[in-house]
Amino acid sequence: MGKCDGRCTLLVICSLQLVAALQRQVFDFLGYQWAPILANFLHIMAVILGMFGTVQFRFRYLIFYAVWLVLWVGWNSFIICFYLEVGNLSQDRDFLMTFNTSLHRSWWMEHGPGCLVTPVLDSRMAPDDHHVITVSGCFLDYQYIEVLSSAIQILLALFGFVYACYVSKVFQDDEDSFDFIGGFDSYGYQPPQKSSHLQLQPLYT
């Protein structure tokens, strides 16, 4: 029963991770954030492998899923540092999320809750095919929305890592105990042994 509870909990965590990653992928596509789009795609694939390994009792898939979650925590920690401009990181200078191919920002910058977008006409600051805007009145700035999204990803990843290690340990223990008792060999069919203690008696007529 405990094994089933651990597997079911891990499947629930993987499902939440999948929903959160898909939701994030949509908004990153809308904001042309190419680096997060690539990372989200890899994360979705790793979560699907983790779910498959949980259902099919695949130990190696769970190990791969757990290792990826460590990298995923590191990536989301970097995103938090980027949007909070920790150290030398600067959103005005570094366009890492778009691989320095465009000046696009997070989709939440213009579409955050309560945000009022005002275009600045005849601005010389805007390069070709871009426009300058001012954003005001936001209930929550886009930086903190991105930080909150990454924090949720980190929290789910920590829970997923713990349960992936637990379930993989259970799978490994079951496999070792199964090998110890001889696997299917102990359940093989053995035909009845013929008795060799037959004695021949002479026949008198």
How do you describe this structure in short?
This protein has helices at 2-30, 34-56, 59-83, 108-111, 142-180, and strands at residues 116-120, 132-136. It has 205 residues and is mainly α.
Walk me through the topology.
Layout: H1 2-30, H2 34-56, H3 59-83, H4 108-111, E1 116-120, E2 132-136, H5 142-180
Structural commentary:
- The chain is mainly alpha-helical.
- 59% of the residues lie in helices and 5% in strands.
- The chain is built from 5 helices and 2 strands, in the order H-H-H-H-E-E-H.
- The protein has helices at residues 2-30, 34-56, 59-83, 108-111, 142-180; strands spanning 116-120, 132-136.
- Strands 1-2 form a two-stranded antiparallel sheet.
- Helix 1 runs antiparallel to helix 2 (34-56), helix 1 (2-30) packs antiparallel against helix 5 and helix 2 packs antiparallel against helix 3.
- The chain is elongated, with a radius of gyration of 30 Å.
Descriptive keywords:
single chain, 205 residues, mainly alpha, two-stranded antiparallel sheet, 2 strands, 5% strand, elongated
